[in-house]
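From the pipeline queue, job 12 of 40. The input is one protein chain; the requested action is below.

Action: predict structure.
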Amino acid sequence: MLTTQLVEYLNQQLNVASIKDYCPNGLQVEGKPEVNHIITGVTASQQLIDAAIAAKADAVLVHHGYFWKGEGEAIVGMKKRRIASLLHHDINLLAYHLPIDIHPLWGNNVQLGHLLGLDNMRPLAGIAPEGIVYTGSANMSLAQLGTTVANALGRELVVCEGAADKTLQKVAWCTGGGQSFIEQAALAGCDAFISGEVSEQTIHVAREMDIAFIAAGHHATERYGVKSVGEHLSAEFGLQVSFIDIDNPA
């Protein structure tokens, strides 16, 4: 498949043109003109790039790429080494941030909801972009929800905060660094909120607004969107696609 065709297809399917983000979505580093083998992963770290080189991949597809708003523009140090590795081995780097978070089929939020077995999933109304926060139905205690999340993600929770004797009916979640949405979730009548990260003020909001809170790891909650996109590409175009999980406890 031509690289240009792959980029055009993903840009269209992920609705890149209509999503305002703080990094460029799409092709970030140009490599081979044709792609047959793709490595997918959460972040374009040196370890993931080295794995792609070892696998003789033509492209790396990630959720967290480069060139974030506000970061230093000089290509030096770690950034230089990463980009030099890609260029030297002629490997394309494709990155999609918010488009992978919010996609209604392959998005991080949808995929996490499916993984947790939640019912009646839908975007939480009134929060832009649509799909950045999802809600679903549950009927369990905080301990049961915490165990479900920990088992699904295969790791210990970062935080599990809330009343032990309350039955949770409506759960909201935002993968990655979505802890700031906890107040909107509480105002929408949710009993629990799940995110990847926790901030100091998150716990105070949870306690004062009587909403249970689980932080399960930024990386752990965002493995499944880019993995799902890769699986779709493999099924749709017969490309060789491998997801590599470079573990990160954060």
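Job complete. The CA atoms of residues 108 and 222 lie 6 Å apart.
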